[in-house]
Design a protein that fits this description.
The protein is mostly helical. It is 52% helix and 7% strand. Keywords: Cell membrane, Membrane, Transmembrane, Transmembrane helix.
């Protein structure tokens, strides 16, 4: 016979003892301020700024060709994130890309991250720490400066 003890585990809900209280806690990042995980609002505004700049450059030099816009955006992400750790939009929004080991991303990291970012879907799929697949692929996080 089934009694309350047998079904009590699913009635009480899942075990939440290992769930982080804020994004980045599992990664050793502070809850807020410098070094905390960049939230969605800053990330979205940064990508909109980068895309807008790419669009303006494409208007000026390539008659607003959609392929040119994507290529300019990808080149900006590859070069700037791969060398400086941030794009123009990241810099304006006060965020930067940092590898989990504390080092700055390499040019190869910038290329991998940009390709996945241009595919869109990897950027939309995020984990509890607000890291998209493009960040997880190069073992990086986007933090506030």
């Amino acid at each position: 016979m089934v009694d309350r003890k047998d079904i009590g585990s699913w009635l009480s809900g899942p075990d939440t003892s290992n769930i982080s209280k804020f994004p980045g806690e599992r990664l050793g990042q502070p809850e807020s301020g410098r070094g905390s995980m960049a939230r969605a609002g800053r990330r979205i505004l940064a990508i909109c700024i980068d895309w807008g700049l790419s669009y303006l450059i494409a208007i000026a030099f390539f008659d607003a060709n959609p392929t040119a816009i994507l290529a300019i955006f990808a080149a900006e992400q590859m070069l700037l994130v791969g060398t400086l750790g941030y794009s123009v939009g990241h810099r304006i929004m006060g965020i930067e890309v940092v590898r989990l080991d504390g080092r700055q991303p390499t040019l190869l990291d910038g290329v991998v991250r940009a390709v996945l970012l241009c595919l869109v879907i990897p950027a939309i799929i995020t984990d509890a720490d607000h890291r998209g697949l493009h960040d997880r692929a190069i073992k990086s996080i986007l933090i506030r400066r």
